[in-house]
Design brief:
Layout lengths: L2 H9 L3 H23 L2 H18 L9 H19 L22 H15 L2 H12 L4 H8 L3 H24 L11
Helix pairs in contact: 1-2, 2-3, 2-4, 2-6, 3-4, 4-6, 4-7, 5-8, 6-7, 6-8, 7-8
Length: about 190
């Protein structure tokens, strides 16, 4: 059976069909939620909430062929809700900063990945969700905009601001100047 058939059956209340849809999407949803939320447990909660909302709201889905985009939209909204709900204090442990790796250092890629992770973590959840949908999941910008429930122009603007922010974070990281010394958002 194709996905459309499962969606149509699930819209009519077939729990087994919905279970198959959820199984097929769970890994993708978890990966996207982890990128958006930067926390494994919060990501699991967001995926669970998105699937609950999907089961509840599935009868209202007009076009079964847009199920994946609709499901990502539910996930993004659940992720943003999780971000708003959490009241977590960040405790920073300071130690001596290691020297910058040599240009030929094999661990440089790990340093770059960590810098990207920090930069993504500093983005607003709405911007991070768009970056994840477009760059990580390869979703075309119009489809990502539709999944987020925003116009294409708003998506372009958010993506532009997010890329500028990521670029600035990387340039600041390359300067080796700690963000707190610059008076940054950390």
């Amino acid at each position: 059976m194709d996905q459309r058939t499962f969606v149509e059956r699930a819209r009519e209340g077939d729990r087994d069909a919905f279970t198959e849809l959820a199984r097929g999407a769970a890994t993708r949803l978890d990966a996207a939620a982890r990128l958006i939320l930067r926390d494994r447990e919060l990501a699991r909660d967001a995926v669970q909430e998105a699937l609950i909302r999907a089961w509840r709201d599935l009868p209202g889905l007009r076009d079964p062929d847009r199920f994946d985009g609709w499901l990502y939209r539910l996930l993004v909204h659940a992720s943003i809700d999780e971000t708003r709900r959490r009241q977590r204090r960040v405790i920073e442990v300071r130690g001596d900063l290691p020297e910058a790796p040599a240009p030929h250092d094999d661990f440089r890629r790990l340093d770059d990945r960590d810098a990207l992770d920090r930069a993504l973590g500093d983005l607003r959840p709405e911007h991070r969700a768009l970056v994840v949908l477009h760059y990580y999941l390869g979703m075309p910008l119009p489809e990502a905009a539709a999944s987020l429930g925003i116009t294409l122009g708003a998506a372009k603007s958010r993506l532009h601001r997010a890329v500028l922010s990521l670029r600035a974070a990387f340039e600041a990281d390359a300067d080796g100047e700690p963000e707190l010394a610059r008076g940054g958002p950390r």
